[in-house]
C-alpha cells in the first residue's frame, strides 16, 4: 500500500512539473520575443524605449540562455515564486491566493448543484415507469453539454435579473448573487454526471446481485437505491479530476459573464493583457487542481472498493502489452 | 460495444475488381438498402431537424449574400435597436446594423475555425497515436506522457496559453482549440493501433515482406479510421463551443468582423433593454451545436451498434 501511495504521489508531482514545463515552452519560447508581446499587450504600443526593453528583458532574465532561464524559473516556482503580474505588479502567487477562494465558493456551490441535478436526473430516468419521461430525462444531458455556457449565463441574467427582477445581477457575491453563476457553471457538469450515472446504473441493474435482491423480495425502490445506486456511484469518483477541471475552466467564462472576481476572470484578463507570468500561473493552478483531485480519488477509491485495494497491492503488467510481446517473439 | 468495433475492422478491405462490376441484381439491392436507410432516418425527427439546421448554416457560410443581402457592417443611425420584425428578423444593434445579416455572414468564420481546429487535432493526434502505438518502447512512453500532461490541463487553459503566445485572431484560436483536442485523438488512435497490430492480416502483410511504414499506412491506418472519425464528429461540437467561448472572451475575430461568440459579447452591455442582441446569436449558436452533436451521436451510434 505504501508503494501504491508513493507511486500516486510521484505521478501527481510529475504531472504538475510537466505542466509547468509545457507552459514554459508555450509561453516563453513559442512567441519569439515575450518582451515585445508583453509590451504590446500591456497598453504601450511601440512607445517603449530600447533602454526600457533591455531593462525588462534583464528583469525577466530573457538575456540568459534558455536552459538557464528554465532552471531559474523552475527553481523560483518551487519556492512559490511564479513572477510578478505585468498589469498590477503584484506577485502571481498572491494574485491567485486572493482570487482562488472566491472561485472555490462558486465551484463548490456548482458542484453541489451538479451532483443533485445530475444524479437526480439519472435516478428518476431509471426509476420512472413512464418511458416518455425516461427518454426525455436521458436526452436532457446531451442538450446540456451542447449549450454555450456564456449564452446560458446571459439569458439567465436577462430573464431572472433584468426582466423578472428575482435575483441580483451583480454584487452580492456570496448570497443570492451566487445562484445564477452557480447554475450556469453547474449545467455541463450535471450533464456529464447524469450521462455517466445513468449508464452505470443501467449496468448495475444487470448484475446478478440485483436479481438476487429481487428474488429475495426487495421492492423496486430498495433495489435501485440501496443495491444498484451505491455500486453505480463508484465510477463517478474517477470523474473527479475531470469535473474539477471542468469547473475551473468554466469559471473563466462564467466569472466574466457575471463580473465576479476570481481565478477565471483574472485568467481572462491576463490573456487579454498578454500578462505571461499570470497566464502561466493559471495553467499551473489548473494542473495542480487536476492532479490533487485525482490523487485524492486514487487514495479514497481503494478504501471504498476492496477490489481496487487488492489490485493496488500487485502491479501487474498491462495485459495488452504482455500479449503483444508474446505474439512478436 | 467492443465486439462490434472488431466486426467493423474484419470486413474485407478491398473488393476484387470482378465484384465491382454492378450487376443489375446488386444495384437493386443497393437501392433497396438506401431506401431502407432513408426511411429509418426519416423516422427520427430530431435527426432530420439537425441535418436541416446544419445544411442551412452551411449554405449561409458558403453564400451569405444570397440569404442576407444587407451589408453586415453597414451602420444605419436611423434604425438603432429595432426589435426583431419583418424589416430586420433578428433586430438591429447599437449601430443600426442588421443582426440577421451579421449572424448569416458570421457563419463562415464561426464554422471554419472549429473545422480547422478539429482537422488539426485529428491529423496531429492521429500521427502521435500512430507513432506511439507502432513504435512502442520509449517513444510510446514519451509521447503518451506528453499527451497525459496536455490532458491534465483543462482544455480552455491550454487554448488560452496558446492564444497568449500566438496572438489573437481566428486562425490562432483554431490552432489553440485544435491543440486542446489532440490528446483525445492520440489516445484513441494508439489504442486502436495496438488492437489492429495484433490482427492476422497485419501479421500476414509483415510475413510477406511488406515494409513496416507501408504496413502502417495501408493496413493499420485504414482500419483505425472508424473510431477516430467518430471522435472527430463528437469533437466538432465541442470545438464550435470552444471557438465561440474564446470569441466571447474577445480573443477571436476582432470587431467589427461578425462572429457569433463576439456578437454575444457585444450585446452584453445592453442586456436589460434589448434582449435580442445577445439572445438571437446565442440561440443560433446553441442550435448549431445541438445539431452537430445530434448528428455526431447518430454517426457514433451507427458505428458501434
Structure description:
Chain A: Belongs to the binding-protein-dependent transport system permease family. Chain A: Keywords: Cell membrane, Membrane, Transmembrane, Transmembrane helix, Transport. Chain A: It comes from Streptacidiphilus cavernicola. Chain A: This is ABC transporter permease. Chain A is an all-alpha fold and 329 residues long. Chain A has 15 helices and no strands. The relative contact order of chain A is 0.14. Residues 316-329 of chain A have low confidence and may be disordered. Chain B is an all-alpha fold and 305 residues long. Chain B starts with a helix and ends with a helix. Chain B has helices at 2-10, 17-20, 24-42, 45-62, 64-67, 99-135, 137-152, 155-166, 170-197, 200-207, 212-248, 260-266, 276-304. Chain B is built from 13 helices and no strands. Chain B is flat, with a radius of gyration of 23 Å. Chains A and B meet through helix 1, helix 7, helix 11, helix 12 and helix 13 of A and helix 7, helix 8, helix 11, helix 12 and helix 13 of B.
Please summarize the sheet with the most strands of chain B. none
What are the segments of chain A in which pLDDT stays under 50 over at least 5 consecutive residues?
Answer: 316-329
| CATH architectural arrangement of the largest domain in chain A | Orthogonal Bundle
- As a percent range, the share of strand residues of chain A is under 5%
Give the proportion of residues in helices of chain B: over 70%
- For the record, the count of structural domains of chain B works out to 1
- Spatial shape of chain A: flat
Share of helical residues of chain A: over 70%
Order of helices and strands of chain B: HHHHHHHHHHHHH
**Tally of helical runs of chain A:** 15
